[in-house]
Amino acid sequence: MTALTQYQRLEATGIWRKSAEAQRIDVIISIGESSLVITDINEKPLAHWSLAALAVKQSKDGNKLYHPDGDPSETLELGNNENEMAEAIEKLMKVVGRRRPKPGRLRIYSLASILLLISGLSIFWLPTALRDYTQKIIPEVREQEIGEAVLNEFVSFVGAPCSRELGKMALEKFVSNLGFLEYNFYIVPSETINVLHLPGKIIVISKALVEDFDDPDVLAGYVLAQIQREAKSNALDELMRQMSNMEIIQFLFGKSPDAKTLRSFSKDWITKNKVSLDLESLMKEFNNREISSLPYSYAKDVTGKTTQFLINSEKTSEKARKPSLDDSSWLALQTICGG
Question: ∠ at Cα 331 (315, 216), nearest 5°?
Fold first, then answer.
């Protein structure tokens, strides 16, 4: 502190009283390291007062009395001609005072920091934590109910699920052959989608994948690819991203999302569900189910450039292949929407 260094050699005389009942003593005052040093005339230390905790009051005769802040009974009065010391003390008190924390301001800053922290947590941490927690504890039945509710809203964009009886029986056989009995499959009239997954293990398929191809393995490939996407792109998590924290909490305790939220999710999900595929993992799925990847590969890209890995893997594989659905059942499935 520059001002402190300036006055470190300054000394003055004065009168010090330890308490209101104590005797007044002639003393020598000097400025120490951030303190006022009081000694007797023999230079015996009597007191050290912190400059940061120094206060001033007036005596009955109008003279300045210095004392430790909070203890007005211990006082120091400078000699009549000690103007330089008085000016030094006053200046140092101002310098130190500017550097002292202001309790009121500190409380305001502390409160503001706490509010900012809470706001940050509510914006960045809380939604993620709520979504993760909800997905961990929500029962499968509850998630299926949500999926059915989403499907009901989905109808306005893709049409009602097709339901011709022979076609439904063929679809059940197809699902069984693939080994996905835990899923609920629906075929819809819309051609704006290929395959989508919804919450609650619901798979929605465009009728174009059924009616426009002669080989059921094309459909099988699209289904395998979509279920791989499901592992990377959680539909329930995406639905909850469109909900407020309060709505997620209400959902956690049994309240279903409102129709507006479900409709908004349904509309967005059609375009957002574009997660890239790991072709190596997809090829393993074809191999595990002994289904040919070639029909799907050429349906996705007639040139075979973007699906070259699948094509080459198929040609070098010694795995036996079998159709995902027999011919008569495939023909029945192609009529599920009345086509």
Answer: 25
With beta carbons less than 8 A apart as the criterion, state whether 285 and 228 touch: yes
Exposed (0-12), middle (13-18) or buried (19+): which is 338, by Cβ within 10 Å?
Answer: exposed
The CATH class of the 2-99 domain is: mainly beta
Instruction: Record the pTM.
Output: 0.62
Question: Is 227 within 8 Å of 180 (Cβ atoms)?
Answer: yes
pLDDT per residue rounded down to tens, the chain (339 residues): 455 566 667 888 988 998 888 898 999 988 876 778 888 888 887 888 877 778 888 877 778 888 888 788 888 888 888 888 888 888 877 776 655 555 455 455 555 554 444 444 444 455 677 777 777 777 788 888 888 888 888 888 888 899 899 999 999 999 999 999 999 999 999 888 899 999 989 999 999 999 999 999 999 999 999 999 887 778 888 888 888 888 888 877 778 888 888 888 888 888 776 777 889 999 999 999 999 999 999 999 999 999 999 999 998 887 888 999 999 999 999 999 986
Q: Rounded CA gap, 285 and 178, in Å?
A: 10
Between CA 145 and CA 44 the distance in angstroms is 87
Helix axes 279-288, 216-232, angle to 10 degrees: 130
Q: What gap in Å lies between CA 219 and CA 80, rounded to an integer?
A: 105
| CB-based contact 76:64 (threshold 8 Å) | no
Residue extents of the structural domains in the chain: 2-99, 102-137, 139-333
Tokens of 282: 């997809």
In terms of Cβ atoms closer than 10 Å to its own Cβ (0-12, 13-18, 19+), residue 265 is buried
Say how far apart CA 80 and CA 245 lie, in whole Å: 71
Q: Report d(CA 27, CA 42) in Å as an integer.
A: 9
